[in-house]
Design a protein that fits this description.
single chain; five-stranded antiparallel sheet; rod-shaped
Length: 92
Protein backbone atom coordinates (compact mmCIF):
# COMPACT_ATOMS: atom_id res chain seq x y z
CA UNK A 1 0.00 0.00 0.00
CA UNK A 2 2.94 2.34 0.62
CA UNK A 3 4.15 2.08 -2.97
CA UNK A 4 0.67 2.85 -4.31
CA UNK A 5 0.34 6.01 -2.24
CA UNK A 6 3.56 7.41 -3.71
CA UNK A 7 2.35 6.95 -7.30
CA UNK A 8 -1.24 8.08 -6.70
CA UNK A 9 -0.56 11.86 -7.05
CA UNK A 10 1.33 11.22 -10.29
CA UNK A 11 -1.51 9.12 -11.69
CA UNK A 12 -4.09 11.71 -10.67
CA UNK A 13 -2.04 14.43 -12.34
CA UNK A 14 -2.03 12.53 -15.65
CA UNK A 15 -5.79 11.89 -15.44
CA UNK A 16 -6.51 15.58 -14.81
CA UNK A 17 -4.13 16.62 -17.60
CA UNK A 18 -5.90 14.26 -20.00
CA UNK A 19 -9.34 15.72 -19.30
CA UNK A 20 -8.22 19.36 -19.23
CA UNK A 21 -5.73 19.45 -22.10
CA UNK A 22 -5.51 16.40 -24.34
CA UNK A 23 -9.17 15.49 -24.76
CA UNK A 24 -10.39 19.00 -25.77
CA UNK A 25 -7.51 19.33 -28.25
CA UNK A 26 -8.44 16.01 -29.87
CA UNK A 27 -12.06 17.14 -30.08
CA UNK A 28 -11.05 20.43 -31.81
CA UNK A 29 -8.83 18.53 -34.25
CA UNK A 30 -11.69 16.18 -35.11
CA UNK A 31 -14.05 19.13 -35.73
CA UNK A 32 -11.42 20.84 -37.91
CA UNK A 33 -10.93 17.68 -39.98
CA UNK A 34 -14.66 17.22 -40.52
CA UNK A 35 -14.95 20.89 -41.57
CA UNK A 36 -12.12 20.45 -44.10
CA UNK A 37 -13.72 17.30 -45.49
CA UNK A 38 -17.06 19.12 -45.89
CA UNK A 39 -15.62 22.06 -47.88
CA UNK A 40 -17.50 22.59 -51.12
CA UNK A 41 -17.58 25.04 -53.99
CA UNK A 42 -19.30 28.29 -52.97
CA UNK A 43 -18.40 28.12 -49.25
CA UNK A 44 -17.00 31.30 -47.71
CA UNK A 45 -13.88 30.73 -45.60
CA UNK A 46 -11.14 32.43 -43.59
CA UNK A 47 -7.55 31.24 -43.88
CA UNK A 48 -4.94 31.13 -41.13
CA UNK A 49 -3.43 34.31 -42.60
CA UNK A 50 -6.74 36.16 -42.27
CA UNK A 51 -7.69 36.09 -45.95
CA UNK A 52 -11.43 35.89 -46.63
CA UNK A 53 -12.73 34.39 -49.83
CA UNK A 54 -15.13 32.10 -51.62
CA UNK A 55 -14.13 28.52 -52.50
CA UNK A 56 -13.91 28.01 -56.25
CA UNK A 57 -12.31 24.56 -56.47
CA UNK A 58 -11.56 21.80 -53.95
CA UNK A 59 -8.98 19.06 -54.47
CA UNK A 60 -7.48 16.50 -52.10
CA UNK A 61 -4.89 18.77 -50.47
CA UNK A 62 -5.54 22.23 -51.92
CA UNK A 63 -8.39 24.71 -52.20
CA UNK A 64 -8.70 27.50 -54.74
CA UNK A 65 -10.20 30.62 -53.17
CA UNK A 66 -11.48 33.67 -55.03
CA UNK A 67 -10.47 36.62 -52.85
CA UNK A 68 -11.70 39.32 -55.27
CA UNK A 69 -13.35 39.34 -58.69
CA UNK A 70 -11.25 36.99 -60.85
CA UNK A 71 -8.41 36.85 -58.29
CA UNK A 72 -8.02 33.20 -57.28
CA UNK A 73 -5.36 31.92 -54.91
CA UNK A 74 -4.45 28.34 -54.07
CA UNK A 75 -4.01 27.41 -50.40
CA UNK A 76 -3.59 24.18 -48.50
CA UNK A 77 -6.75 22.76 -46.97
CA UNK A 78 -5.13 22.77 -43.55
CA UNK A 79 -4.78 26.56 -43.67
CA UNK A 80 -8.57 27.02 -43.68
CA UNK A 81 -9.53 27.93 -40.12
CA UNK A 82 -13.16 29.05 -40.26
CA UNK A 83 -16.18 28.37 -42.42
CA UNK A 84 -18.29 31.53 -42.60
CA UNK A 85 -22.10 31.69 -42.88
CA UNK A 86 -23.49 32.26 -46.38
CA UNK A 87 -23.36 35.83 -47.81
CA UNK A 88 -20.99 37.09 -45.09
CA UNK A 89 -18.61 38.52 -47.69
CA UNK A 90 -21.38 40.62 -49.24
CA UNK A 91 -22.06 42.32 -45.92
CA UNK A 92 -18.42 43.38 -45.47
Amino acid sequence: MGNMSTFLPLILMFVVMYFLMIRPQQKRAKEQKSMMDALAKGDEVVTAGGILGKVVKVSDSYVTIDIANNTPIVVQKSSITTLLPKDTLKSL
